[in-house]
Amino acid sequence: MFDDGRLCFGGDYNPEQWPPSVWAEDIALMRQARVNLVTVGVFAWSRLEPAPGRYTFDWLDEVLDLLHAGGIRVALATPTASPPPWFSVAHPGALPVTPEGVRLHHGSRDTYCAAAPAYRAAALRIAGALADRYAHHPALALWHVHNEYGTICHCEHTAQAFRRWLADRHGDLAALNEAWCTSFWSQHYSDWAQISTPRATQYLANPGHLLDFRRFWSDTLLAAYREQRDLLRAANPALPITTNYVLGDWVPVDHARWAGEVDLVAVDHYPSAVDIGAEEQTALVGDLARGWARHGSRDPAGAWLLMESAPGHIQTPGRMHTKEPGRMLRHSLAHVARGSRGAMFFQWRAPAGGAERFHSALVPHVGSDSRVFREATELGAALQQLAEVEGRVEAGVALVVDAASGWALHHPGLPSPRLDHRQETAAVHRALWHAGYGCDILPPGDPLDGYRLLILPALYLIDDTTAEWVREYVAAGGHLLATYLSGVADEHARVRLGGYPGALRDLLGMWVEEFHPLAEHDQVRLRGGGSGRIWTESLRLTGAEVIDSYAGGVLDGRPAVTRHRAEAGTAWYVSTRPDADTYRRLLDEVTRCAGVTPVCPGAPAGVEAVRRRSAHGSWLFLFNHTDLPQQVPARGTDLLTATPVDEAVRLPPGGVAVLREH
Ligand code: GLA
User: Nearest residue CA, atom 4 of ligand 1?
Assistant: First the structure.
């Protein structure tokens, strides 16, 4: 019912922020721009339930009817990410508590503890009231549960729930003490009641404790989602249900685990770089989202939806950067190329007030006579022309991402504060992207058929099952590239003894004796002419050959990159973070040995190519990220301009083409 064959285009629509006189214009403009899906009600709790149990649905009735009459479908949200002031006043014990024990107050959003029974009950009540009233409304295409699950709390409700979760996970205290290595610093627990959440403490906290707290929150937030989902599903089993993922290692959500619980993986993406980094991040997020969708649905194509993005700006850590003309289209289609069933935005119309008053919108403050709205209209038309695109993204490389490894590398007490699984993933993904290789991102344990190269980017936590999964892949002839710290610790973040990386050392034909972390701006030279940063190590070889060595410094002449023939396969190891050019040269060598080829070998540097293939055909997306015209040898029909291409696609600076290939 959700997928009606069209690509989705639209965004968060907040009619509760506007007088009804604006609604008719909204619908007219949406039709003009070819908007076909809007998320409604995501922060409307106080307007839907102004007092406990008293509902005011009249305005939403009218809005949904208007949208339906205008041919615009609705992702109806449950508004539970922002409880109304009356809730906080009535249930102060359900307000969130920081690690320092400070109770936060109303005044923003997400002011609740998702482990507090009063919050869960109130959330279910408003979700149930919406389900009763709208589950069969003809405008509805999708339920959108909550918004960006990701909050943490340290209150007493949380502590109790955490203890129950720990008892389920570990069985008894002896197992927990073992997993957390509590003999260190006299932390041995003799009663469950002694365990609190990892609150602010005197010095370094226990890594096992920190890691389990993240896992607990992922499961607790998932339980909160499931409660709402099950209630909505009971009201109309035909309507699909999703929730929008927020990205970042700070989020206590294991998105791969959650993917099996949603009918559609939906992702919010806001790049933080203004240069080509924004395009790199876009590609990375598209590949991540598709990997979650494939993991959850077991559908090789892995359809997902870009649920939010910013129409007109990029939010950098310091300022808002206005997107250059054409960038909204490029970013949107780059997500579609990677499997998104459309492009959705936060938000439809820019509000006059409220915390996000200057956030960009499809209809900006100035109104529809604006560049952003004109570009939105062009995007709406482009998406309509791409409805036929389907199938699997061509990818010969599999990159492994694991939420727990990301969390564990943020723990205190590690040998360097610059260790970061997501950054390491981004670095290798970036190198693959610039060289034009298609890449799937997947969680440990997913099927590896068809991949010629498996990459573990600082995959710090490797349990025995994952180690065996990697070993079998290599034994069967696969190529493995592991970067530093992969497999150093087990699933409890306990270091595997006997030479790092314990989980992989036999496969790699070497072991690491000592770490030599680098200072923030340090760079280490390699004898092959390249350089590395962040990390170096002293390696001891047990069968691996040296591919590159350190040049200068304490590790002068010692191996930096190694390769080992292991059974029918090959295992490469990289003991530093290669700089961009070094990484690209290394990957050229690794992919050549592994037999991985670029998606479009004739594409010039700066032109991104993504190919989708199904039983019905193949489609080639081309993005010119340079400021010069470019030409790419190809044949087919450009769907955006409906023109045949006989020999080569000509792309203007910043141009995009989508070819149905012959
Ligand atoms: C998130 C939220 C939106 C909005 C945007 C702003 O993705 O879901 O409500 O706050 O960020 O970028």
Answer: 346
Q: Give the model confidence (pLDDT) of 323-337 as tens digits.
A: 999 999 999 999 999
Query: 247: alpha, beta or left, given left = phi > 0 and alpha = psi -120 to 50?
Result: beta
Atom of ligand 1 nearest to the CA of 43: 9
The predicted pLDDT at position 1 comes to 53
Question: Which residue among 279, 308, 491, 608 is the active-site one?
Answer: 308
Residue nearest atom 3 in ligand 1 by C-alpha distance: 346
How far is residue 222 from each of residues 125, 195, 253, 385, measured CA to CA in Å? 18, 23, 8, 37
* Distance (Å, whole) CA 141 – CA 136: 10
Give the atom of ligand 1 at the shortest distance from the alpha carbon of 268.
7
Burial class (CB within 10 angstroms; exposed 0-12, middle 13-18, buried 19+) of 277: middle
Catalytic residue among 148, 394, 491, 537: 148
Asked if 491 is an active-site residue, the reply is no
Is 308 an annotated catalytic residue?
yes
For residue 410, what is the DSSP state?
A: T
Distance CA 179, CA 268 (A): 35
As a whole number of angstroms, the distance between CA 303 and CA 291 comes to: 9
CB 321 within 8 A of CB 313: yes
pLDDT per residue over 33-86, tens digit each? 999 999 999 999 999 999 999 999 999 999 999 999 999 999 999 999 999 999
Residue 360 Cα to ligand 1 midpoint, Å, equals: 11
Whether the per-residue pLDDT at 269 is higher than 80: the answer is yes
* Binding-site residues, ligand 1, Cβ < 6 A: 147-148, 268, 270, 308, 310, 346, 356, 359
Q: Which whole-number Å values give the CA distances from 193 to 159, 173, 190, 212, in the listed order?
A: 9, 11, 9, 16
Say if pTM beats, i.e. exceeds, 0.85: yes
CA distances from 102 to 95, 99, 214, 476, 615 (A): 10, 7, 20, 54, 57
pLDDT in tens, 393-452: 999 999 999 999 999 999 999 999 999 999 999 999 999 999 999 999 999 999 999 999
Helix (H) or strand (E) holding 573: strand 569-574
Residues 481, 454: contact at Cβ < 8 Å? yes
Going from the Cα of 149 to the center of ligand 1, the distance in angstroms, rounded, reads: 12
CA of 148, closest atom in ligand 1 = 8
C-alpha distances in Å from residue 634, one per residue of 601, 625, 646, 647: 11, 18, 7, 6
Residue 350 CA to ligand 1 centre (angstroms): 13
Tally of CB atoms within 10 A around 238: 10
